[in-house]
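The instructor's notes for this session suggest beginning with a concrete chain rather than abstract definitions. Hand out the sequence below and ask the class to guess, before any prediction is shown, which regions might be ordered.
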Amino acid sequence: MGIRKQQWGILSDGTQIELFTMVNGRGMEASIATYGGIVTRLTVPDRNGIMADVVLGYDTLEEYCNDCCYLGCIVGRVANRISGARFTLDGTDYGLDENLEKHHIHGGVRGFHARVWTAEERETADGPALVMRYVSADGEQGYPGTLDVSVVYTLIEDGLRMDYRAVTDKPTMANLTNHAYFNLSGASRSDILDHVLTISGSRYLAMDTDQIPTGQVENVFGTPLDFTSPLPIGNRIDEECDVLAVGQGYDHFFTAENATDSFRLVARVSELQSGRTLEVCTTQPGVQFYSGNSMPSQLRGKQGAIYGRHSGFCLETQGYTDAPNCSEFPSVVLRPGEVYEHVTEYRFSVTEKNGK
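After discussion, reveal the predicted structure:
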């Protein structure tokens, strides 16, 4: 167990970027960069005990700086889309960075994914930990208030835990997530269409043609979004229907089965050849499942891998999409004196060839 630190690269303004690698008692490793809080590497054993990196990424800092897919990073202040790149809070209108045509996504062009975080190493009873901190200035990307944010990465015995915390000096919006792309085969040259997915939620947010929620919460039953029982991701991904046409595949927010902030399982994914299984547990009210539909073809990744459509999948635990503009959705408003707190864990295990 322990943490290794190395100088990883230098930004164009001369800022030094560090890379920290945590190792747990099982030999699993997680590498985190101070640029974007990016999870650049996460090794997990297969059923034979062979370790492999299960997250997509790049070899160099420069490639992450030019990334268009948000590979592995912390996303904020507000994950996902905000319609019209604006919201009204306490009677005041706020305009945000328009980085998705007329809309706003993932905190803007220079959201948390493109900022330099500080890092503090810790040894805890649960495993090695890295405390990432960033102070987002009042007005950054259009958001009001100075937001003091921390994300604690802990390499627990069976995976990676992320503890999110934020406080503000003015009313603002806060909805953070991690944007890791997984490929449990450990061979990112293959796609993820044969990965078997279960999502505990039976409802999703209906969207318009810009992938902005309509305000309606629909039932998944009878649609290709029904993953309440295990099903390969690729089994119905090419069905001709409106619900898939909007995102050209899966890019949907699934609500949790209860409205509390209890810690619970929201999704499970298995890759049958390696036996690796990922369970995503969270206190967040839902999860965005994205099947990598818009990944550029011939995208050069780690160690010579070439990524393309469906090379990885994301399970982004977060608050409801466009909550700042949908009063019927659970609020993502954060006020002075309040604390934004959420926990997400990526837990890994293996199954035998008979599926047990």
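Then share the key points. The chain has two helices and 29 strands. The radius of gyration is 19 Å.
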